[in-house]
Structure formats: C-alpha cells, structure tokens
Amino acid sequence: xxxxxxxxxxxxxMAKGHPDQADKGVDRAEKLVDERTDNRYDSQTDKAxxxxxxxxEDGQH
Length: 61
Known about the structure:
This protein is 80% helix and 0% strand.
C-alpha cells in the first residue's frame, strides 16, 4: 500500500478511537472551506462532511 493509503488508514483508526475529536476536525475543515468560498459549495461540503463522519462512526447516528 502507498504511504498515502497508510496515512489514511491510520487517520481512520484514530477517528474511530476518538470520534468527538474527529468531529471537531471535520467541523473546522468544513467551516474553513465554506468561509474561503463564501458558502458557494455549502451543500457539497455538508455532504462531504457527512460522508467522512459515516466512515468512522459505524452508524452511530
């Protein structure tokens, strides 16, 4: 596996172990993108953030 793939797997494992902290990071990233794009892509960032959360929450929502 590539180094990027290894890093992604480690990030997912960390997020599964610390979902509250991961949620904060996802929220910050989404907010940053929305601010820098004047909310032009708000619906896309919402969908992306939810997809990321689903990847580590295992259906908790």
